[in-house]
Q: What sequence folds into this?
């Protein structure tokens, strides 16, 4: 077969050029899973890379990693900071263990490899990373604010000036905040992040962000400006979760160090201090939960420039740090990722207009408008319309408990200054919406181009794709990804409008969907640190994370808060990295021990159960015990991986106890039916592999019969949705699973698509009276199932991180072709198939330095060909490379 080079996606790159013809060229050099990051605190950062080699069977047999502060020394390989020497290994993940790293320092690292022929790379591949503050005592700035009045509504400005005389080599800004901020220097916003810093339990861990501000600082006089928003720190809106009563609540505050290194080697730090001044901004109200209000008449032109007259501004006040743990935000930031033009505009009259973006998103709108001074513009954001065409928010404001009418839900308010055309976009808020109803207190003229939407979310790189011959499947996949991203804001949320809460149940359901499609490890490592912050001494976790204290008493059984085990385990499977599993090991054990102590029989009734089912309700004890079992199995496996053999034996015994108790109560072994035999009761035990080996086939057969009796429609809730398609596909009934997945009538994902959905909903009936957010990820497992079943791409826990790939693509009646791809730690995996005149053709790509095993059916009257050669073996081991596999009718 004539192999051609498969170029790895441009999402990944290294500093050095990559030759397309050179064997064992390298790409995707990353530190802590980020490209050339700055501001890291980890004293032992992780280095990863990928091997580009178009040759069949390409593999790495050795590596060498060097680290130094001087890139030139890496070229000469004479570094003394760290040199692993040549290590015989195919690993592409190495943890730094050289000389102690220093704060505020840029490091360069080089990686060399040898291929399967022992040929060493002859090009130099260098990447960089930079340490940040690293230790609390290295901060020089003070925590400052304008007051401690939590009821004060306008957002505060802060400014200071400084002068530089010497030539600057580099400059970094380190800023931590309780609340949200925007940083500017000399009148220009620094960076393109939104909603920094990410939300944490502020009184236990606060994040800081590092910016390269070298080019922003001028020789001579400079000005620094900081605008603070409330975020989750000073929650002024009132809802059922009581964030307005959070124990950390206070007026927002920040700490800033701008560290300048001059060409002569000297340094200077411009820091937050009593010298700073403050005034109120035109943002007269901001709530991350509801909206933002802006009075343009109060604008202070040039407030963040050097020559602005601030004589009437107030002095700042000192504040204590919100926590004793200020750490680096080392993760993909939130951004305005996509600008979306309005699809249509409806004019009701001269003061009321309706903009339709044509799709449901998380984010903000930006309006450009002119009108008389004092004109009040209201922008009401919603997901659906009343029959009269006006925006209807009754499906998303159900948990809002306003004390007055001054803070309307998802409604930005702009007061014009009368100085011509002006634009407004919220600084410290985001919403979930498709429609924006604009109303004004005086006549205005708007055209379709005057309002755009910005799809905001954590800007995680895309690493997966699915294409199908069936349009409804493509729509479902698109909608699933939209909902996943709409609910990724530095932590996974349930919905971007009604709550914005980090519901654990939604996140554990969607973890595989997220990891197949997006490079999300930095988000999940941060969120599991939030878990560790929130766990009670007895092991209990809240149902929403982070939390102000709500959720320890409701919704937090193992069916939801199994995130503490399920997410680290899946990150391990997808990345082959043990760090998160090790970091959370004690927390998983504490959680499991709490359930064991509370429910000594092995059966637990703790949990919410199969949330929002179609019609059949399953026992909470059945579903929660399955999740408890899954947690214990993960804990036992983690113990073995981490070398904790006593724990491995202990928790394998506990898993057996749970399994035996569960099956003794719920399994009718003779009939092969669990409980009453509805879809959730049958599929959840199959999916979590608690079914006895000898009963699997009969239970799966009965599940398939039940689904057929239900007209190949869903009869499940949240937990059943995670299990149903997988339980069928993994046990010989992929055709039935596909019929369910591709259904276009109620209840189904396709039913939503047929009714115009561009995201996934919270409830199966589109006219439900409650629980009807139209942008939820909790039914999003179907996205992962498309990779696992028709795509057939699965990680192998024995060689995780797709070091060894399990390929088991299912050819399904009703599909003519299907393609799935995923960029894992070793590169791009492709699994595609299509029907041809006399059989099936598979196109497979296995990235360099990995292997795969593909399972193909052996069908009478058909032969299997691999790259043109007959190979009638059911399981075929594949080295790296590209393959055409055909199943054709015998001549």
A:
């Amino acid at each position: 077969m004539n192999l051609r080079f498969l170029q790895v996606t441009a999402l990944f790159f290294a500093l050095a050029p990559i030759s397309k013809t050179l064997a064992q060229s390298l790409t995707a050099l990353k530190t802590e899973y980020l490209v050339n990051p700055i501001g890291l605190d980890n004293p032992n950062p992780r280095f990863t890379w990928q091997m580009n080699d178009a040759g069949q069977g390409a593999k790495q047999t050795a590596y060498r990693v060097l680290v130094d502060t001087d890139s030139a020394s890496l070229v000469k390989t004479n570094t003394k900071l760290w040199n692993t020497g040549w290590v015989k290994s195919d690993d592409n993940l190495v943890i730094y263990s050289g000389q102690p790293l220093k704060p505020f320092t840029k490091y360069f690292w080089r990686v060399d490899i040898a291929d399967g022929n022992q040929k060493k790379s002859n090009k130099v591949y260098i990447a960089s990373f930079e340490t940040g503050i690293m230790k609390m005592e290295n901060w020089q700035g003070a925590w400052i604010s304008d007051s401690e009045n939590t009821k004060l509504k306008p957002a505060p400005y802060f400014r200071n000036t400084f002068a530089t005389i010497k030539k600057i080599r580099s400059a970094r800004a380190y800023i931590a905040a309780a609340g949200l901020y925007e940083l500017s220097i000399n009148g220009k916003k620094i960076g393109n992040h939104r909603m920094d810093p990410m939300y944490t339990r502020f009184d236990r861990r606060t994040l800081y962000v590092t910016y390269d501000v070298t080019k922003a600082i001028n020789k001579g006089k400079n000005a620094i400006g900081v605008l603070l928003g409330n975020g989750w720190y000073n929650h002024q809106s009132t809802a059922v979760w009581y964030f307005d009563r959070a124990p950390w609540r206070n007026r927002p505050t920040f700490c800033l160090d701008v560290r300048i290194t001059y060409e002569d080697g000297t340094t200077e730090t411009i820091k937050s201090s009593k010298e700073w001044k403050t005034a109120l901004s035109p943002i007269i109200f901001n709530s991350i939960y509801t909206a933002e209000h802006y009075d343009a008449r109060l604008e202070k032109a040039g407030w963040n420039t050097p020559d602005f007259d601030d004589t009437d501004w107030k002095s700042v006040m000192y504040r204590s740090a919100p926590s004793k743990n200020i750490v680096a935000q080392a993760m993909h930031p939130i951004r305005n990722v996509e600008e979306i033009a309005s699809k249509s505009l409806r004019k009701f009259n001269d003061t009321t207009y309706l903009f339709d973006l044509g799709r449901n998103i998380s984010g903000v709108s930006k309006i450009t408008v002119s009108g008389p001074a004092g004109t009040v513009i209201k922008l009401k954001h919603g997901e659906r319309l009343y029959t009269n065409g006006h925006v209807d928010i009754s499906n998303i404001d159900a948990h809002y408990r306003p004390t007055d009418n001054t803070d309307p839900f998802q409604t930005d308010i702009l007061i014009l200054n009368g100085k011509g055309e002006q634009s407004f976009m919220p600084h410290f808020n985001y919403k979930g919406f498709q429609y924006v109803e604009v109303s004004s207190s005086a006549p205005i003229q708007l055209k379709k181009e005057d309002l755009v939407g910005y799809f905001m979310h954590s800007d995680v790189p895309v690493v997966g794709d699915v294409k199908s011959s069936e349009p409804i499947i493509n729509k479902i996949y698109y909608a699933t990804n939209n909902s996943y991203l709409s609910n990724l804001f530095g932590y996974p949320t349930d919905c971007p409008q009604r709550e914005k809460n980090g519901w654990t149940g939604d996140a554990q359901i969607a973890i595989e969907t997220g990891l197949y499609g997006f490079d999300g490890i930095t988000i999940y490592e941060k969120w599991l640190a939030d878990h560790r912050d929130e766990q009670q001494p007895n092991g209990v976790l809240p149902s929403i994370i982070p939390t102000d204290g709500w959720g320890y008493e409701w919704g937090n059984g193992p069916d939801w808060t199994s995130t503490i085990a399920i997410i680290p385990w899946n990150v391990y499977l997808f990345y082959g990295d043990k760090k998160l599993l090790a970091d959370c090991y004690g927390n998983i054990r504490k959680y499991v021990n709490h359930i064991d102590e509370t429910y000594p029989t092995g059966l637990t009734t703790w949990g919410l159960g199969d949330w929002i089912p179609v019609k059949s309700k399953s026992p909470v004890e059945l579903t929660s015990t399955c999740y408890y079992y899954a947690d214990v199995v993960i804990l036992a496996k983690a113990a073995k991986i981490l070398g904790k053999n006593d724990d491995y034996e202990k928790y394998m015994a506990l898993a057996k106890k749970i399994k035996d108790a569960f099956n003794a109560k719920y399994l009718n072994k003779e009939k092969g039916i669990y409980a009453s035999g509805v879809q959730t009761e049958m599929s959840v035990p199959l999916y979590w592999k608690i079914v006895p080996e000898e009963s699997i086939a009969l239970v799966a057969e009965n599940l398939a019969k039940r689904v057929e009796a239900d007209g190949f429609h869903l009869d499940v809730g949240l937990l059943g949705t995670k299990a149903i398609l997988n339980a069928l596909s993994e046990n010989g009934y992929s055709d039935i699973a596909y019929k369910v997945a591709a259904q276009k009538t109620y209840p189904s994902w396709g039913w939503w698509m047929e009714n115009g959905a561009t995201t996934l909903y919270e409830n199966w009936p589109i006219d439900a009276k409650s629980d009807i957010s139209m942008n939820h990820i909790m039914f999003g497992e179907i996205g992962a199932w498309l990779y696992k079943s028709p795509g057939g791409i699965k990680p192998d826990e024995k060689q995780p991180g797709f070091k060894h790939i399990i390929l088991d693509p299912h050819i399904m009646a009703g599909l003519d072709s299907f393609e799935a791809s995923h960029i894992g730690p070793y590169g791009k995996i492709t699994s595609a198939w299509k029907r041809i005149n006399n059989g099936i053709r598979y196109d497979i790509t296995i990235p360099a330095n990995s292997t795969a095993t593909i399972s193909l059916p052996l069908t009478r009257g058909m032969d299997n060909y691999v790259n043109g050669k007959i190979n009638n073996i059911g399981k075929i081991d594949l080295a790296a490379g590209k393959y055409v596999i055909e199943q054709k009718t015998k001549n």
